[in-house]
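This entry is set out below.
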Amino acid sequence: MQEIEVIRSQRRTKTVQARIVDGKIQVRIPARMTKAEEAKVVGEVVAKLERRTRSSVSSDADLMSRAHRLNTMVLEGKARVENIRWVSNQNSRWGSCTVVTAEIRISDRLKNVPDYVLDSVLVHELVHTFIPGHSAQFWEWANKTPLAERAKGYLEAYQRWG
């Protein structure tokens, strides 16, 4: 569980905001809120923030299931998925694929990203099972992922400031 810092604001009258700052969850609330109201809204916005910023995929079996679903929905079943797993030894890559064996490894750093970001990385690696390299044709397929461009931006920021 991440540390939660509640900031009461005299200027804030109705809205509540939660965001992650320096690894801790900051929740801004109106100063006039009672302790009971604070507890309720803080719980709600923190849960919403965590749902938005964490992948729902945690096990290797979940990863395999998601890969099969994405292969069907995004890649028209073209990818070969033999084995896929989370790994902890990838610090400079988000994922990797051994084309010959269709084995995909996904960095466990991605367990804390939104689903659309994980989906983008999974599709990227799945495309490698039928198109090696990063040709224009490769990117045509890899960019079919919903929110692919947004995911690239997220990963770029995560790499820098993660």
Notes: The chain has two domains: 4-53, 60-161. The longest strand covers residues 24-30.
